[in-house]
Amino acid sequence: MLCQHCKQQEAIMQLFITENGNTREVYLCESCAKKTQEVSFVFHPAIVPEFLQALFGFNSTAKDQPTETACPKCGLSFSQITQVGKLGCSTCYETFETQLEPLLRRVHGGGQNVGKIPARRGATLIKRMEQRKLKETLQALIQQEAFEEAAVVRDQIRKIEQSAGGEKSDS
Predict the structure, then answer these.
(1) β-strand partners of 25
(2) Is residue 22 part of a domain?
(3) pLDDT of 92 strictly over 80
(4) In angstroms, how far is the first alpha carbon of the chain from the final one?
């Protein structure tokens, strides 16, 4: 089947896109898959290696590749990891850190895991995160000498601190 975007190359990937309750199938070739970065995918386990190779431009069949280093613990090379779609062990993260970091940033949209917020203490954690972001914004505004905007942000921080103080005394 031909790629539905370029209509020139053979499609190697099948995507199911659901919009407003309607699901449609899209078939993409390797080059069009590389260009598709803004879409969130649900993977079928059998196509993960091919998808990763297409998305990140890996070509594990290239004969002119230099000898790769292998993980000292599990023995997997980086090309094997891209074929399988999984790391072999925790040491792989350290061994292939320079190669993995840009890929993980591209896939996850950033380099920091923010995790999930528990239901019980969620409101408190959300307020703390909001307060931290506001303090960072405040510092940036002060650096830019945007003092009027900084005063507004400062007031927002105080409001959060006051509401947090009231919650603590209720407990």
Answers:
(1) 16
(2) yes
(3) yes
(4) 63
Domain of residue 128, residue span:
122-170
Nearest Cα to Cα of residue 34 among 13, 61, 65: 13
Count of domains for the chain: 2
Q: Residues 26, 97: one domain?
A: yes
Last residue in a domain, options 58, 80, 108:
108
C-alpha distance from residue 92 to each of 21, 75, 76, 87, 95 (Å): 40, 9, 8, 6, 5
Amino acid at 134: L
Supply φ then ψ for residue 128, to 5 degrees. Answer: -65, -45
> What's the pLDDT score for residue 136?
92
For residue 140, what is the enclosing H or E element? helix 122-143
pLDDT single digits (tens) 107-127: 666 666 666 777 776 777 788
